[in-house]
Amino acid sequence: MSMEYIKSPKKVPVDDKPKDECGIFGIYGPGLDVSRLTYYGLYALQHRGQESAGIAVSDGRVISLHKDMGLVPEVFTGEILRDLVGKMALGHVRYSTTGSSLVLNAQPLVCYYSNGMIALAHNGNLINTGELRSRMAQEGSVFQSTIDSEVIINLIARYGQDSVEEGIKRTMAELKGAYSLVVMTEDKMIGIRDPWGVRPLCLGRLEDAYILASESCALDTVGAELIRDIEPGEIAVISKSGLVSYKIDIPACQGVCIFEFIYLARPDSVIDGFQVNEVRREMGRQLAREYPVDVDIVISVPDSGTAAARGYALERGIPFEEGLMKNRYIGRTFIQPDQEMRDLAVRLKLNPVKNILKDKRVLMVDDSIVRGTTSGKMVRMLRHAGVKEVHMCVSSPPILWPCYYGIDTSDRDELIAANLDIEEIRKYIGADGLHYLSLEGLLKVFGSPENLFCTACFDGDYPIGVPAGGKTGKFCLELGGVKNE
Question: What's the whole-model pTM score?
Answer without folding.
Answer: 0.89
